[in-house]
Each structure stands twice: as structure tokens, then as C-alpha cells.
């Protein structure tokens, strides 16, 4: 069946072959560097795609919220780690999940670990998030007194187990010298491991960002890697040098609703509620909300002449179209958009249509079909 016959409104397509190739490549890189790959599932948010990942030896996974962890629980994962500073209002749900699913959480302060120590009724692991330069969240790498206090409080609970230290070097997204950032990250984690492994001999260290994990060649003695966006990649990752456009595994299929050839514009049904509003900046200062691909039976192709979405509103998208694109599309046709930020697009759409016409699940459980 031609998947295009199922599409009447904006629909997120997934190319299983490309997605599997991305997972396999990162799994092979992890094995090469003797790292355990524990991918962040904030991008895919899918049980089915998780089944694909397990075929490449992946046994543990990371979630960005307890809601996401609940969706993924009891579907074959040896451990689900919630890589977000834990919200103590969710302790009752954490207790419920931990009864049947091995789970761990992220700690950045003493108040949270104290609440967990007081209220946990099931075993839960935890990692301490470290700030080694990003500045978003985490215990500063040199704040040993806070780390010591967190560990001291945790030791009072029979339900808490310390797993190790986690760093998300998110500044690899906007600083060019990724190798330098990784050098600083390696040094921070090595220092912490040296300081604490005598009392905690089984502790592990983990990094979690796609740009660095994709391009770095030296991981030192880091134990685990947890990139997320690599499952799909996107145009932002292309700009950062993490991948090529041909590595992007998802495309938003959208209907053409109007064509204005004198302005080289195509109006499509596909806007902020479908793509989200992440954008890149063109050389001439224009915004780029996604690039056009040509949908074919069994997939899509990247055209030689480039067209992009130059503006969006809630439901509308306006394409700056090449002459080639104008000459081959008509009102009612479908075209595809490679997203700038696939995590946000996937979250907005909440479902995937495979190139064989199969619907694939997403934690948000939306399907943009009548």
C-alpha cells in the first residue's frame, strides 16, 4: 500500500531503515569506546521504536518525565532513568511505578533527596546531575559539600540506591568546540569518580547530548552515553555537524492548499501546531522552519534545488519555493518537511506513519486523522 493514500492532513512520517541505521551506528560507536548506550527517549517516545532499539543490544532507557516513564514502563526495559530534576509532588506515582519497573531519578538538591528518603515505599535508584559548564541545572562540579549531604541523606533510606553522576553538556548545541567541552566534561566526571568510588565502587558516569556523542572521539573513562535526538536527527543537527540530511528519519507530510507562482510561494496546511516553531536563520536573515523533500512511494528524496518553510502560523506554512518545486506540485499534492527540531515535531504530532502504512505509537497518543 502507498502510505500517501492514508494522508489527508499533516502527518509525521518515519523511515524505519534510516531510524534503525542511526540506532545501529550509535550502538556501534558506544561499543567501540566501551560505553553503555542508554538512549534518551524524549525524541522517539515510542514503545515500537524501543523494540527496534533492543535489537541492537540496548537494554536501558532514559525518559524526560515521570509521565513518559509510566508510558514506557513494563515494556521490556531493565531500567528507566528520569533525566530531569525530580519533582517531589510525583513521589506517589514514583512509588507506584517502582513496584513493577526498575527506575531511577535525577537529584540536584538536598530537599528532594530528603523527601524521597522520607516517603519512598519501593526501591529507586538515583544519579546526581552535575553542572560542568552548561549552567542550566545540576550541582556544581566543585560543590562537594552538597554532594556529600545528598549521599548522607540517601544513606538513611533503605529504598534509595546511588548509581552515579550525570552530565548533560548542552552547550555543545551552541558552542563550536565540542571536543573542548567534552574534555571539560571528562575531567569533571573523572574527578568525581576518583573522589567517590572508594565509598561507592559501583558508581557510573554518564553524558547525554547528541552533538557531542555524534562527533566526539575521546570519552576517557566515562561509563555510559545517553544521546536522544540521534534516533531521528534533524536540520539543527545537520547544521551542528552531527549528521547529514540523508540521516534524518522523520518528515512531516503536508497538503498543498495554494500556489502563488509570481511570488515563488506555496501555502501548505502545516504550521506551529505541527512543526513547533524552532527555526534556523538563512544567510540573508530569513527564518527557516524546515526544508522540503519530495514524497515518493516508499519514502522521500532530497531535491537538488532547495525550498524551505519561511514562515508559519498556527495551521499555515508558507514555503519559499524553487522553480523546480513550483513546476512539479499542484494544489492537493503532498510534500514533506524535514524538521528543524525533530523532538518538538514528534511531540506535537504524537504519532508516526511508517512508509509501509503502519501507525506507530507515541507517548502523546495523538493521530492527526479524522
UniProtKB/TrEMBL annotation:
GO MF term list: alanine racemase activity
Keywords annotated in UniProt: Isomerase, Lyase
Organism superkingdom: Bacteria
Main enzyme class: isomerase
Entry EC number(s): 5.1.1.1
Domain Alanine racemase N-terminal stretches: 14-196
Residue ranges occupied by any D-serine dehydratase-like domain in the UniProt entry: 249-353
UniProt entry tagged with the keyword Ligase: no
SUPFAM superfamilies named among the record's database cross-references: PLP-binding barrel (SSF51419)
Family membership: Belongs to the DSD1 family.
Name listed for the protein in its UniProt record: Alanine racemase
Species lineage: Bacteria, Pseudomonadati, Bacteroidota, Cytophagia, Cytophagales
